Amino acid sequence: MPQVIVGSLFVLIVIIAGWLVGFYNKMTNRKLKAEEYWEEISDNTPEIIDAQIQLYNQAVTEYNQYLRRFPNRLASMILGVHELPGYQQPSEVD
Q1: Low-confidence residues of the chain: pLDDT under 50
Q2: Which of 29, 39, 58, 83 suits a disulfide with 64, CB 3.0-4.6 Å?
């Protein structure tokens, strides 16, 4: 009987560790995608900048939604991972 308990705990630990590795990889890939779009926002034509901002905000939204899902929220709290802010263009003053 003790072997069954120890074996079950071992399997549970392996499953949780595998899930954490998968969570971390997906979270990192989504964050890198958002950061790549952030770096592409540069001094281009306004149309290109708007498109790049839109891609960045979409990537940030996907990343933040991924972090908000259960049980990802618990893992992000444990790992100290925070949501990314979306880009908001400064309002033009007349």
Answers
A1: 93-94
A2: 83
Q: Is residue 94 part of a domain?
A: no
Compute CA distances 26 → 2, 32, 40, whole Å.
36, 10, 22
pTM of the predicted protein model: 0.69
Residue 46 lies in a domain: yes
Domain count, the chain: 1
Structure tokens at 75: 């893992």
**Domain span including residue 30:** 2-79
Rounded to the nearest angstrom, the gap between the alpha carbon of residue 59 and the centroid of all alpha carbons in its chain is 9
